[in-house]
Amino acid sequence: MTIDDLRRILAECAGEDESVDLGGDILDTPFNDLGYDSLALMETASRINHEYGVKIADEEIATAETPRALLDMVARAA
Q1: What is the C-alpha separation between 75 and 13, in angstroms, rounded?
Q2: Comparing C-alpha atoms, which of 7, 12, 14, 9 is closest to residue 52?
Q3: DSSP letter at 75?
Q4: pTM more than 0.90
Q5: Which terminus in the chain has less CB density within 10 A, N or C?
Q6: 34-67 CB burial, b ≥16 within 10 A, e <16
């Protein structure tokens, strides 16, 4: 899974804050700054599971603070 895949998933399933540009370098931008809360991240994890077959526990997804951290979780769980 790439950062572009994650951008698409965030925009499609978790809702996108119109004031946030997901096209820039967002790897280390906190999800709070991107407008995503824990519920949005749980929905993102559900979509990742559905599309990629990678299961991330709710407790673990709640600890992801940045897109880089989430991508690392996906890589470890794959």
Answers
A1: 20
A2: 9
A3: H
A4: no
A5: C
A6: bbbeeebbebbbbbbeeeeebebeeeebeebebb
- CA angle centred on 19, ends 56 and 54, rounded to 5°: 10
d(CA 25, CA 21): 9
Let me know: does 30 contact 68? Beta carbons within 8 Å: no
What is the mean pLDDT of the segment spanning 38-65?
A: 93
The one-letter amino acid at 52: Y
Say how far apart CA 14 and CA 22 lie, in whole Å.
13
- pLDDT tens digits, residue range 6-36? 999 988 865 555 555 677 889 999 998 888 8
Q: How confident is the model at residue 60 (pLDDT cuts 50, 70, 90)?
A: very high
